[in-house]
């Protein structure tokens, strides 16, 4: 787990460092964005609602560029495979880097609170600070271009790693706190 954290941290620093060398300035007027995931809220035992605001921080948004992300992670009273129900509420921040126009990589950190009811191994309730690191690769597809905004889909595939010790929601009965995931972000840039 420590090697995973070190790898993600070094990758994040490398991407941020790269963007600081960019000599481009933002020339496109669509600097802001808002996104929601269309898949995970509807998957049983996942039911995670995510929303984020994005801000272009360097480059032309029609080419290579970088975005800062600020978001929310909401998982209210969801049936779970390790506990009877789980409530998770987190904020997130991260960086998305666009390569070759719409191909993108993002790294995001989540931190917040978890409240887990009735662990399926020991029957106890657990609550406390929880945090995750997430890495995704995606490709942004512009589906509707308007004069002052663009509606887009950003299908993503990635990895979510819990950073707490595995007992944050009690004994996991051998189940990992790391997840391969898919997302379909619906967004609007303006």
Which structural traits does this protein have?
10% helix; mainly beta; 190 residues; eight-stranded antiparallel barrel; Porin; 9 strands
CATH class: Mainly Beta
Low-confidence stretches: 18-27
CATH architecture: Beta Barrel
Mean pLDDT equals 88
**Portion of residues within helices:** 10-25%
Domain module tally: 1
CATH topology: Porin
Sketch the major β-sheet. Answer: 8 strands, antiparallel, barrel
Placed side by side, the strands forming the largest sheet appear as: 1-2-3-4-5-6-8-9
Radius of gyration equals 18 Å
Order of helices and strands: HEEEEEEEEE
Share in β-strands: over 45%
Helix-strand category: mainly beta
Number of contiguous helices = 1
Query: Tell me, what's the shape?
Result: elongated
Distance between the termini: 39 Å
By DSSP, the count of extended strands is 9
**Quaternary structure state of the chains depicted:** single chain
Question: What's the arrangement of secondary structure elements?
Answer:
Layout: H1 2-20, E1 32-37, E2 49-59, E3 65-79, E4 83-99, E5 103-119, E6 126-139, E7 141-145, E8 150-162, E9 178-189
Antiparallel strand pairs: 1-2, 1-9, 2-3, 3-4, 4-5, 5-6, 6-8, 7-8, 8-9
Brief sketch in words of this structure:
With 190 residues, this protein is mainly β.
Account of the protein in words:
There is one protein chain. Helices cover 10% and strands 58% of the residues. Strand 5 and strand 6 (126-139) form a beta hairpin. With 190 residues, the chain is mainly β. An eight-stranded antiparallel barrel has the order 1-2-3-4-5-6-8-9. The longest helix is centred in the first third of the chain and has 19 residues, at 2-20. It has one domain: Beta Barrel (Porin).
